[in-house]
UbiA prenyltransferase family-domain-containing protein
Amino acid sequence: MFTTSRGQLCAHQNARVVARMAALPLLGLKSSASRSVKVSLRQGKDSLKGLLGYQIRHIERRSFSTAVFAISRTDFFRSNEELSQPKLLVRLFSHTPKLWHGSPVSSRNPPSPLRAYLQLGKPRLTALIVLSTMSAYALTPDQSHAIGAAVSSLPVPSLSTLLFLTIGTALTSASANAINMAREPLYDAMMSRTRSRPIVRGILSTRQAIRFAVLAGITGSAALYFGVNDETAALALLNIVLYAGIYTSMKRTSIVNTWVGAIVGAIPPLMGWSAAGGSLLDPAAWCLAGLLYAWQFPHFNALSYPIREEYKMAGYIMTAWVNPQLNARVALRYSIAIIPLCVGLWYYGVTDRLFLADSTVVNSWLVVCAYKFWNECRGAVVSKGATASARRLFWASIWQLPAVLVLAMLHKSGLWDGLFGGEGNPGDTDVAKFVEDL
Protein backbone atom coordinates (compact mmCIF):
# COMPACT_ATOMS: atom_id res chain seq x y z
CA MET A 1 0.00 0.00 0.00
CA PHE A 2 1.23 3.48 -0.74
CA THR A 3 -0.05 7.02 -0.52
CA THR A 4 0.84 9.72 -3.01
CA SER A 5 -0.32 13.09 -4.18
CA ARG A 6 -2.00 13.69 -7.53
CA GLY A 7 1.18 15.21 -8.98
CA GLN A 8 3.27 12.16 -8.08
CA LEU A 9 0.67 9.85 -9.57
CA CYS A 10 0.94 11.56 -12.94
CA ALA A 11 4.57 10.42 -13.14
CA HIS A 12 3.78 6.79 -12.80
CA GLN A 13 1.58 4.07 -14.18
CA ASN A 14 -1.08 4.43 -11.56
CA ALA A 15 -1.76 7.94 -12.86
CA ARG A 16 -4.76 6.34 -14.59
CA VAL A 17 -6.66 6.92 -11.38
CA VAL A 18 -6.37 10.65 -12.00
CA ALA A 19 -8.54 10.31 -15.08
CA ARG A 20 -11.30 8.96 -12.88
CA MET A 21 -10.87 11.88 -10.51
CA ALA A 22 -11.02 14.34 -13.41
CA ALA A 23 -14.30 12.81 -14.62
CA LEU A 24 -15.92 12.60 -11.19
CA PRO A 25 -17.68 16.00 -11.54
CA LEU A 26 -19.71 14.36 -14.32
CA LEU A 27 -21.29 12.25 -11.58
CA GLY A 28 -21.85 15.26 -9.37
CA LEU A 29 -18.64 14.81 -7.37
CA LYS A 30 -15.89 17.39 -7.12
CA SER A 31 -12.35 16.95 -5.91
CA SER A 32 -11.08 19.08 -3.07
CA ALA A 33 -7.93 21.19 -3.20
CA SER A 34 -5.96 18.94 -0.85
CA ARG A 35 -6.59 15.56 -2.45
CA SER A 36 -4.60 12.41 -2.02
CA VAL A 37 -5.04 8.91 -3.32
CA LYS A 38 -4.55 5.53 -1.74
CA VAL A 39 -4.19 2.52 -4.00
CA SER A 40 -4.27 -0.89 -2.40
CA LEU A 41 -4.78 -4.51 -3.37
CA ARG A 42 -7.87 -5.66 -1.55
CA GLN A 43 -7.79 -9.28 -0.48
CA GLY A 44 -10.20 -11.16 1.71
CA LYS A 45 -13.34 -13.23 1.76
CA ASP A 46 -15.56 -10.23 1.13
CA SER A 47 -13.72 -9.07 -2.01
CA LEU A 48 -13.80 -10.57 -5.49
CA LYS A 49 -10.67 -12.33 -6.69
CA GLY A 50 -8.70 -10.35 -9.25
CA LEU A 51 -10.13 -6.93 -8.36
CA LEU A 52 -8.23 -3.84 -7.35
CA GLY A 53 -9.85 -1.45 -4.89
CA TYR A 54 -9.23 2.27 -5.25
CA GLN A 55 -9.91 4.28 -2.14
CA ILE A 56 -9.97 7.90 -3.16
CA ARG A 57 -9.94 10.14 -0.09
CA HIS A 58 -11.07 13.72 0.19
CA ILE A 59 -13.51 13.55 -2.68
CA GLU A 60 -16.32 15.77 -1.59
CA ARG A 61 -19.85 16.24 -2.61
CA ARG A 62 -21.23 18.07 0.37
CA SER A 63 -20.24 15.69 3.18
CA PHE A 64 -18.76 12.83 1.16
CA SER A 65 -15.46 11.85 2.72
CA THR A 66 -14.42 8.57 1.11
CA ALA A 67 -15.23 6.74 -2.10
CA VAL A 68 -14.31 3.13 -2.90
CA PHE A 69 -14.36 1.72 -6.42
CA ALA A 70 -13.88 -1.94 -7.31
CA ILE A 71 -12.29 -2.05 -10.76
CA SER A 72 -11.08 -5.02 -12.79
CA ARG A 73 -7.46 -5.38 -13.91
CA THR A 74 -8.53 -5.04 -17.56
CA ASP A 75 -10.17 -1.69 -16.88
CA PHE A 76 -7.20 -0.62 -14.78
CA PHE A 77 -4.84 -0.92 -17.73
CA ARG A 78 -7.01 1.05 -20.13
CA SER A 79 -5.63 4.26 -21.54
CA ASN A 80 -6.30 7.60 -19.91
CA GLU A 81 -8.40 8.63 -22.91
CA GLU A 82 -10.68 5.63 -22.46
CA LEU A 83 -10.99 6.18 -18.73
CA SER A 84 -12.02 9.79 -19.22
CA GLN A 85 -15.14 8.74 -21.12
CA PRO A 86 -18.25 9.35 -18.95
CA LYS A 87 -20.00 6.16 -20.08
CA LEU A 88 -17.04 4.01 -19.05
CA LEU A 89 -16.79 5.79 -15.72
CA VAL A 90 -20.46 5.20 -15.02
CA ARG A 91 -20.06 1.52 -15.96
CA LEU A 92 -17.07 1.15 -13.65
CA PHE A 93 -18.88 2.98 -10.89
CA SER A 94 -22.08 0.98 -11.21
CA HIS A 95 -20.39 -2.42 -11.57
CA THR A 96 -19.77 -2.75 -7.85
CA PRO A 97 -20.65 0.68 -6.44
CA LYS A 98 -19.32 1.39 -2.97
CA LEU A 99 -19.55 4.88 -1.57
CA TRP A 100 -18.73 5.25 2.09
CA HIS A 101 -19.71 7.89 4.57
CA GLY A 102 -16.57 8.18 6.64
CA SER A 103 -13.91 5.48 6.67
CA PRO A 104 -14.56 2.04 5.16
CA VAL A 105 -15.76 -0.65 7.51
CA SER A 106 -12.80 -2.49 8.97
CA SER A 107 -12.58 -6.22 8.34
CA ARG A 108 -11.91 -6.60 12.07
CA ASN A 109 -15.25 -5.02 12.89
CA PRO A 110 -17.63 -5.97 10.07
CA PRO A 111 -21.25 -4.72 10.19
CA SER A 112 -23.89 -7.16 11.39
CA PRO A 113 -25.55 -8.94 8.43
CA LEU A 114 -28.82 -8.96 10.35
CA ARG A 115 -28.68 -5.20 10.73
CA ALA A 116 -27.82 -4.79 7.05
CA TYR A 117 -30.84 -6.85 5.98
CA LEU A 118 -32.98 -4.88 8.42
CA GLN A 119 -31.85 -1.63 6.77
CA LEU A 120 -32.63 -3.17 3.40
CA GLY A 121 -36.31 -3.24 4.36
CA LYS A 122 -36.38 0.47 5.38
CA PRO A 123 -37.60 -0.22 8.94
CA ARG A 124 -39.02 3.24 9.65
CA LEU A 125 -41.05 3.32 6.45
CA THR A 126 -42.18 -0.26 7.02
CA ALA A 127 -43.22 0.59 10.60
CA LEU A 128 -45.38 3.45 9.29
CA ILE A 129 -47.01 1.15 6.73
CA VAL A 130 -47.72 -1.47 9.41
CA LEU A 131 -49.19 1.25 11.67
CA SER A 132 -51.57 2.46 8.97
CA THR A 133 -52.62 -1.12 8.20
CA MET A 134 -53.25 -2.01 11.83
CA SER A 135 -55.13 1.25 12.39
CA ALA A 136 -57.52 0.45 9.56
CA TYR A 137 -57.96 -3.07 10.96
CA ALA A 138 -58.87 -1.62 14.37
CA LEU A 139 -61.23 1.00 12.89
CA THR A 140 -63.27 -1.34 10.70
CA PRO A 141 -66.82 -1.42 12.15
CA ASP A 142 -68.89 -4.53 12.71
CA GLN A 143 -69.94 -5.68 9.24
CA SER A 144 -73.33 -6.85 10.51
CA HIS A 145 -74.38 -3.21 10.33
CA ALA A 146 -75.21 -1.34 7.17
CA ILE A 147 -72.65 1.08 5.79
CA GLY A 148 -72.96 4.46 7.50
CA ALA A 149 -75.32 3.17 10.17
CA ALA A 150 -74.74 3.51 13.89
CA VAL A 151 -72.45 0.92 15.46
CA SER A 152 -73.95 -0.63 18.58
CA SER A 153 -71.43 -3.40 19.10
CA LEU A 154 -67.78 -3.92 18.26
CA PRO A 155 -66.36 -6.89 16.38
CA VAL A 156 -64.19 -9.27 18.33
CA PRO A 157 -60.67 -8.93 16.90
CA SER A 158 -58.81 -12.06 15.95
CA LEU A 159 -55.30 -12.10 17.37
CA SER A 160 -54.15 -14.67 14.83
CA THR A 161 -55.46 -12.59 11.92
CA LEU A 162 -53.83 -9.48 13.33
CA LEU A 163 -50.54 -11.34 13.76
CA PHE A 164 -50.54 -12.66 10.20
CA LEU A 165 -51.57 -9.22 8.93
CA THR A 166 -48.69 -7.54 10.75
CA ILE A 167 -46.07 -10.05 9.65
CA GLY A 168 -47.32 -10.22 6.07
CA THR A 169 -47.50 -6.44 5.69
CA ALA A 170 -44.02 -5.95 7.14
CA LEU A 171 -42.46 -8.60 4.90
CA THR A 172 -44.12 -7.44 1.68
CA SER A 173 -43.15 -3.84 2.47
CA ALA A 174 -39.56 -4.95 3.10
CA SER A 175 -39.60 -6.83 -0.21
CA ALA A 176 -40.66 -3.76 -2.18
CA ASN A 177 -38.08 -1.59 -0.41
CA ALA A 178 -35.28 -4.09 -1.05
CA ILE A 179 -36.06 -4.22 -4.78
CA ASN A 180 -36.07 -0.42 -4.83
CA MET A 181 -32.59 -0.33 -3.27
CA ALA A 182 -31.28 -3.06 -5.56
CA ARG A 183 -32.32 -1.06 -8.60
CA GLU A 184 -30.78 2.25 -7.56
CA PRO A 185 -27.37 1.80 -5.86
CA LEU A 186 -25.57 4.11 -8.26
CA TYR A 187 -28.06 6.93 -7.77
CA ASP A 188 -28.41 6.33 -4.03
CA ALA A 189 -24.65 6.87 -3.75
CA MET A 190 -25.07 10.42 -5.00
CA MET A 191 -27.49 11.53 -2.27
CA SER A 192 -26.81 12.30 1.37
CA ARG A 193 -30.02 10.65 2.62
CA THR A 194 -29.38 7.35 0.82
CA ARG A 195 -25.60 6.93 0.59
CA SER A 196 -25.40 4.91 3.82
CA ARG A 197 -27.67 2.16 2.51
CA PRO A 198 -26.17 -1.34 2.71
CA ILE A 199 -25.84 -1.96 -1.04
CA VAL A 200 -24.21 1.41 -1.62
CA ARG A 201 -21.70 0.75 1.15
CA GLY A 202 -20.91 -2.70 -0.21
CA ILE A 203 -22.18 -4.55 2.87
CA LEU A 204 -24.69 -6.44 0.72
CA SER A 205 -24.62 -7.16 -2.98
CA THR A 206 -27.44 -6.53 -5.42
CA ARG A 207 -27.92 -10.27 -5.78
CA GLN A 208 -28.27 -10.68 -2.01
CA ALA A 209 -30.83 -7.88 -1.95
CA ILE A 210 -32.90 -9.50 -4.70
CA ARG A 211 -32.79 -12.86 -2.93
CA PHE A 212 -33.97 -11.22 0.28
CA ALA A 213 -36.74 -9.39 -1.59
CA VAL A 214 -38.01 -12.59 -3.25
CA LEU A 215 -37.95 -14.52 0.03
CA ALA A 216 -39.67 -11.71 1.97
CA GLY A 217 -42.24 -11.18 -0.77
CA ILE A 218 -43.19 -14.86 -1.03
CA THR A 219 -43.30 -15.35 2.74
CA GLY A 220 -45.28 -12.18 3.36
CA SER A 221 -47.80 -12.88 0.60
CA ALA A 222 -48.26 -16.45 1.85
CA ALA A 223 -48.85 -15.17 5.39
CA LEU A 224 -51.52 -12.80 4.11
CA TYR A 225 -53.13 -15.37 1.81
CA PHE A 226 -53.36 -18.25 4.30
CA GLY A 227 -53.58 -16.24 7.52
CA VAL A 228 -55.85 -13.37 6.42
CA ASN A 229 -57.57 -13.58 3.02
CA ASP A 230 -56.79 -13.56 -0.69
CA GLU A 231 -57.98 -9.97 -1.18
CA THR A 232 -55.44 -8.61 1.31
CA ALA A 233 -52.67 -10.70 -0.25
CA ALA A 234 -53.55 -9.39 -3.71
CA LEU A 235 -53.38 -5.79 -2.46
CA ALA A 236 -49.94 -6.45 -0.97
CA LEU A 237 -48.64 -7.91 -4.25
CA LEU A 238 -50.11 -4.95 -6.13
CA ASN A 239 -48.19 -2.61 -3.84
CA ILE A 240 -44.90 -4.40 -4.53
CA VAL A 241 -45.45 -4.00 -8.28
CA LEU A 242 -46.46 -0.34 -7.93
CA TYR A 243 -43.56 0.64 -5.70
CA ALA A 244 -40.67 -1.53 -6.89
CA GLY A 245 -41.71 -1.54 -10.53
CA ILE A 246 -43.72 1.46 -11.67
CA TYR A 247 -42.81 4.09 -9.06
CA THR A 248 -39.08 3.32 -9.05
CA SER A 249 -38.95 3.52 -12.85
CA MET A 250 -40.97 6.73 -13.03
CA LYS A 251 -38.69 8.57 -10.62
CA ARG A 252 -36.30 9.21 -13.51
CA THR A 253 -38.93 10.10 -16.11
CA SER A 254 -41.76 12.25 -14.72
CA ILE A 255 -42.89 14.23 -11.67
CA VAL A 256 -46.03 12.07 -11.77
CA ASN A 257 -43.98 9.53 -9.80
CA THR A 258 -44.99 11.32 -6.60
CA TRP A 259 -48.67 10.73 -7.30
CA VAL A 260 -48.00 7.07 -8.08
CA GLY A 261 -46.01 6.77 -4.85
CA ALA A 262 -48.95 8.26 -2.96
CA ILE A 263 -51.17 5.43 -4.26
CA VAL A 264 -48.68 3.00 -2.74
CA GLY A 265 -49.18 4.70 0.63
CA ALA A 266 -52.97 4.56 0.30
CA ILE A 267 -53.19 0.78 -0.18
CA PRO A 268 -52.15 -0.42 3.36
CA PRO A 269 -55.34 0.99 4.99
CA LEU A 270 -57.37 -0.93 2.43
CA MET A 271 -55.43 -4.05 3.39
CA GLY A 272 -56.29 -3.55 7.07
CA TRP A 273 -59.93 -2.87 6.27
CA SER A 274 -60.17 -5.99 4.12
CA ALA A 275 -58.39 -8.10 6.75
CA ALA A 276 -61.03 -7.16 9.32
CA GLY A 277 -63.81 -8.32 7.00
CA GLY A 278 -64.76 -4.89 5.70
CA SER A 279 -65.93 -4.28 2.16
CA LEU A 280 -63.68 -2.29 -0.15
CA LEU A 281 -66.87 -0.72 -1.51
CA ASP A 282 -67.40 0.98 1.84
CA PRO A 283 -66.75 4.75 1.44
CA ALA A 284 -65.26 4.80 4.96
CA ALA A 285 -62.43 2.58 3.72
CA TRP A 286 -61.69 5.08 0.97
CA CYS A 287 -61.70 7.93 3.47
CA LEU A 288 -58.91 6.14 5.33
CA ALA A 289 -57.07 5.44 2.08
CA GLY A 290 -57.57 9.04 1.01
CA LEU A 291 -56.13 10.24 4.31
CA LEU A 292 -52.92 8.30 3.70
CA TYR A 293 -52.86 9.36 0.04
CA ALA A 294 -53.18 13.06 0.86
CA TRP A 295 -50.61 12.88 3.66
CA GLN A 296 -47.88 11.73 1.25
CA PHE A 297 -47.69 15.14 -0.42
CA PRO A 298 -46.93 17.49 2.48
CA HIS A 299 -44.61 14.81 3.85
CA PHE A 300 -42.56 14.01 0.73
CA ASN A 301 -42.70 17.47 -0.86
CA ALA A 302 -41.29 18.94 2.33
CA LEU A 303 -38.69 16.19 2.62
CA SER A 304 -37.47 16.57 -0.97
CA TYR A 305 -37.22 20.36 -1.07
CA PRO A 306 -34.08 20.88 1.08
CA ILE A 307 -32.21 18.25 -0.96
CA ARG A 308 -33.71 19.14 -4.34
CA GLU A 309 -30.28 19.74 -5.88
CA GLU A 310 -29.21 16.23 -4.91
CA TYR A 311 -32.30 14.80 -6.61
CA LYS A 312 -31.47 16.86 -9.69
CA MET A 313 -27.83 15.74 -9.69
CA ALA A 314 -28.85 12.09 -9.35
CA GLY A 315 -31.29 12.39 -12.25
CA TYR A 316 -34.54 12.04 -10.29
CA ILE A 317 -37.37 14.08 -11.81
CA MET A 318 -38.93 15.58 -8.70
CA THR A 319 -41.35 18.49 -8.40
CA ALA A 320 -39.13 20.03 -5.72
CA TRP A 321 -36.55 21.15 -8.32
CA VAL A 322 -38.59 21.03 -11.53
CA ASN A 323 -41.21 23.44 -10.18
CA PRO A 324 -40.73 24.56 -6.53
CA GLN A 325 -43.91 26.66 -6.61
CA LEU A 326 -46.01 23.68 -7.70
CA ASN A 327 -44.27 21.54 -5.09
CA ALA A 328 -45.34 23.85 -2.26
CA ARG A 329 -48.81 24.42 -3.71
CA VAL A 330 -49.50 20.67 -3.92
CA ALA A 331 -48.31 20.23 -0.32
CA LEU A 332 -50.76 22.90 0.86
CA ARG A 333 -53.61 21.58 -1.28
CA TYR A 334 -53.44 18.06 0.11
CA SER A 335 -52.86 19.28 3.68
CA ILE A 336 -56.21 21.04 3.46
CA ALA A 337 -57.82 17.95 1.89
CA ILE A 338 -57.02 15.90 5.01
CA ILE A 339 -59.61 17.85 7.05
CA PRO A 340 -62.74 16.80 5.03
CA LEU A 341 -61.39 13.25 4.84
CA CYS A 342 -61.38 13.12 8.65
CA VAL A 343 -64.92 14.51 8.62
CA GLY A 344 -65.81 11.62 6.32
CA LEU A 345 -64.66 9.11 8.93
CA TRP A 346 -67.24 10.54 11.32
CA TYR A 347 -69.93 10.89 8.64
CA TYR A 348 -69.70 7.21 7.71
CA GLY A 349 -69.88 6.08 11.31
CA VAL A 350 -66.25 5.11 11.93
CA THR A 351 -65.59 7.66 14.70
CA ASP A 352 -67.63 9.72 17.13
CA ARG A 353 -68.21 13.49 16.98
CA LEU A 354 -65.36 14.35 19.33
CA PHE A 355 -62.92 13.15 16.70
CA LEU A 356 -63.94 16.13 14.57
CA ALA A 357 -62.61 18.55 17.20
CA ASP A 358 -59.44 16.63 18.04
CA SER A 359 -58.42 15.87 14.47
CA THR A 360 -59.17 19.40 13.26
CA VAL A 361 -56.72 20.84 15.79
CA VAL A 362 -53.93 18.50 14.63
CA ASN A 363 -54.75 18.92 10.94
CA SER A 364 -54.90 22.71 11.25
CA TRP A 365 -51.34 22.66 12.59
CA LEU A 366 -50.26 20.80 9.44
CA VAL A 367 -52.16 23.28 7.23
CA VAL A 368 -50.47 26.25 8.92
CA CYS A 369 -47.03 24.73 8.33
CA ALA A 370 -47.93 23.95 4.70
CA TYR A 371 -49.21 27.50 4.20
CA LYS A 372 -45.96 29.00 5.48
CA PHE A 373 -44.01 26.75 3.13
CA TRP A 374 -46.22 27.74 0.19
CA ASN A 375 -45.93 31.43 1.12
CA GLU A 376 -42.14 31.21 1.00
CA CYS A 377 -42.19 29.55 -2.44
CA ARG A 378 -45.01 31.28 -4.29
CA GLY A 379 -42.98 34.19 -5.71
CA ALA A 380 -40.97 34.17 -8.90
CA VAL A 381 -37.87 33.88 -6.73
CA VAL A 382 -38.11 31.35 -3.91
CA SER A 383 -37.45 32.88 -0.50
CA LYS A 384 -34.38 31.85 1.48
CA GLY A 385 -36.66 30.82 4.33
CA ALA A 386 -38.35 28.13 2.22
CA THR A 387 -35.90 25.44 3.32
CA ALA A 388 -36.57 26.10 7.01
CA SER A 389 -40.33 26.10 6.35
CA ALA A 390 -40.01 22.80 4.48
CA ARG A 391 -38.23 21.20 7.43
CA ARG A 392 -40.93 22.41 9.83
CA LEU A 393 -43.62 20.99 7.55
CA PHE A 394 -41.76 17.69 7.32
CA TRP A 395 -41.60 17.26 11.09
CA ALA A 396 -45.21 18.37 11.45
CA SER A 397 -46.21 15.59 9.03
CA ILE A 398 -44.16 13.07 11.02
CA TRP A 399 -46.25 13.78 14.13
CA GLN A 400 -49.58 14.57 12.48
CA LEU A 401 -50.33 11.19 10.88
CA PRO A 402 -49.74 8.98 13.95
CA ALA A 403 -51.67 11.50 16.05
CA VAL A 404 -54.70 11.39 13.75
CA LEU A 405 -54.67 7.59 13.53
CA VAL A 406 -54.40 7.20 17.29
CA LEU A 407 -57.18 9.75 17.85
CA ALA A 408 -59.40 7.90 15.36
CA MET A 409 -58.88 4.65 17.28
CA LEU A 410 -59.58 6.38 20.61
CA HIS A 411 -62.76 7.88 19.17
CA LYS A 412 -63.95 4.78 17.37
CA SER A 413 -67.70 4.77 17.23
CA GLY A 414 -69.14 2.71 20.09
CA LEU A 415 -65.81 2.17 21.82
CA TRP A 416 -66.83 3.84 25.09
CA ASP A 417 -70.41 2.53 25.26
CA GLY A 418 -69.59 0.08 28.02
CA LEU A 419 -68.09 2.84 30.16
CA PHE A 420 -70.46 5.74 29.58
CA GLY A 421 -73.56 3.93 28.34
CA GLY A 422 -74.87 3.81 24.84
CA GLU A 423 -77.86 6.14 25.12
CA GLY A 424 -76.17 9.51 25.04
CA ASN A 425 -72.98 8.61 23.30
CA PRO A 426 -72.51 10.63 20.11
CA GLY A 427 -70.89 7.64 18.48
CA ASP A 428 -74.20 5.72 18.67
CA THR A 429 -76.26 8.47 17.10
CA ASP A 430 -77.37 7.82 13.57
CA VAL A 431 -75.43 10.22 11.34
CA ALA A 432 -78.32 11.18 9.11
CA LYS A 433 -80.57 11.94 12.10
CA PHE A 434 -77.83 13.96 13.74
CA VAL A 435 -77.42 16.09 10.61
CA GLU A 436 -81.18 16.70 10.50
CA ASP A 437 -81.18 17.79 14.13
CA LEU A 438 -78.51 20.36 13.34
